[in-house]
Amino acid sequence: MTRLSLPIIDERNLLWSGALILVGAFFSLAFACAAPLAGFAAIAALTSARRNALALTAAIWFANQLVGFTMLHYPLDFETLAWGGALGIIALICCETARFAARFAVGAGAPFAALAASFLVFEGALFAITRAVGGDVSHYALASVARIFAINACAFFGLWAAALVCSTIVALRPARHA
Known about the structure:
The chain is mainly alpha-helical and 178 residues long. The chain has one domain. The protein is built from six helices and no strands. It has helices at residues 14-31, 37-47, 50-70, 78-104, 110-132, 142-172. Helix 3 runs antiparallel to helix 4 and helix 4 (78-104) packs antiparallel against helix 5 (110-132).
């Protein structure tokens, strides 16, 4: 399985990719450091072929960083830039993880498996890096992680519903003849 069967979502559909990037930028404005990159990586993995999903995930990460540095005024220091780069790499790994998890999930469980796997890898990697550099891990308390998961789940399932609605509309539309 390279992607789930959603006819509107494919490599040629720049509208879907553009919409995801814009929604990703909006979430970056709304949630700053809690932007749901794991949820976006999972939706990209499920709605696009592998290469496009990775490119889309990278573009969403880039939009997140662009919003952070230009509108939210993230500091231009080594630590912030390093964390930004780490988030990009982790988001790409999450995209691949979501694809892998969905491949082995049963039927309708694929979206849930993709989101769960992506989120676990995302938070696990952030925790491991924070711990490795001697950072404060107290913000990984259950309540904080549950809040971040809720943000990711809402973004993911909102986008999943939008993809299903769009693919249904396209499927119901009469075919054009050349």
